[in-house]
């Protein structure tokens, strides 16, 4: 499937009904979700693979993985409201995705999910809680040997230090995250955040 075809398919999905800023609920823009998935697919990390989407929100990444022919797909998400949207999005694609309500910081939940080939995620950037992405990185590395994530541009040095001895960080591709005015505290209609899609390989 072409990158553009995937992007168009993902653009049609339903977004967050009532996004909660405290847990940084921003829908992953279709263009970024498609980039991440396309890249992972080209490297053989999606088709026929067991894939887990951490903080799956409305399920954009999980649905895209299913569309690209992944094997088992599981999405983990804290917010039941977002999961209801993810369920509708999955139904739209007729995608068999297991949706699990829970907290990625809950180690027994993570251990109970089994193992995966690939984790895909758009974790909180840490705008509200500076270290919110750390438990996502930890859970991801516990679940799979290969992890794709969307991070703030410039995160590589931090991630390298945080995962030292555990993983290697490979730059995949850069992008822009157009953050539309979603919350009252936003002062601009659209803020563009530079992001990078990283591939993290467990040692
Ligand atoms: N890719 C998704 C959402 C990305 S935003 C989409 O496009 O819809 C990050 C998501 O992580 C949000 O849905 C938020 O509810 C979820 N989240 C934040 N902290 C979490 C935690 N500790 N455990 C599980 N999910 C969490």
Structure description:
By secondary structure, the chain is α/β, with parallel strands linked by helices. Helices cover 33% and strands 26% of the residues. It has helices at 3-11, 30-42, 60-67, 80-92, 107-112, 134-143, 156-162, and strands spanning 51-54, 73-77, 97-101, 118-121, 146-152, 167-180, 190-202. Strand 4, helix 6 and strand 5 form a beta-alpha-beta unit. The protein is globular, with a radius of gyration of 15 Å. The mean pLDDT is 93. The chain binds S-adenosyl-L-homocysteine (SAH). Residues 23-28, 55-58, 60-61, 76-79, 82, 103-105, 122, 124 line the site of S-adenosyl-L-homocysteine.
How far is the first residue's CA from the last residue's CA?
31 Å
DSSP strand count: 7
Please tell me the overall pLDDT.
Answer: 93
**What's the overall geometry?**
globular
CATH architecture group name: 3-Layer(aba) Sandwich
Sequence stretches where pLDDT stays below 50 over 5 or more residues? none
Q: What percent strand?
A: 25-35%
Main β-sheet, spatial strand arrangement: 3-2-1-4-5-7-6
Element string (H = helix, E = strand): HHEHEHEHEHEHEE
Tell me the number of structural domains: 1
The CATH H-level homologous superfamily: Vaccinia Virus protein VP39
- The CATH topology is Rossmann fold
The ligands bound in this entry are: S-adenosyl-L-homocysteine
Helical percentage? 25-40%
CATH class: Alpha Beta
Give a quick account of the main beta sheet: strands, pairing sense, barrel closure.
7 strands, mixed
Q: So how many helices?
A: 7
Rg on CA atoms, Å: 15 Å
């Amino acid at each position: 499937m072409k990158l553009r075809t995937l992007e168009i398919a993902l653009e049609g999905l339903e977004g967050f009904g009532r996004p909660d800023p405290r847990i940084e609920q921003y829908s992953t823009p279709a263009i970024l979700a498609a980039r991440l998935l396309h890249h992972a697919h080209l490297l053989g990390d999606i088709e026929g693979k067991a894939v887990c989407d951490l903080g799956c929100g409305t399920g954009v990444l999980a649905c895209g993985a299913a569309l690209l022919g992944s094997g088992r797909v599981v999405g983990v998400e804290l917010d039941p409201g977002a999961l209801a949207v993810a369920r509708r999005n999955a139904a739209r694609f007729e995608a068999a995705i297991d949706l699990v309500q829970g907290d990625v910081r809950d180690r027994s939940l993570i251990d109970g999910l089994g193992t995966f080939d690939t984790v895909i995620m758009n974790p909180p950037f840490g705008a509200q809680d500076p270290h919110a992405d750390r438990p996502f990185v930890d859970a991801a590395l516990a679940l799979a040997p290969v992890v794709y994530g969307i991070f703030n541009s410039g995160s590589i040095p931090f991630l390298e230090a945080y995962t030292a001895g555990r993983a290697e960080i490979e730059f995949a591709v850069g992008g822009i995250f157009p953050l539309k005015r979603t919350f009252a505290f936003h002062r601009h209609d659209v803020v563009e955040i530079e992001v990078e899609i990283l591939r993290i390989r467990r040692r």
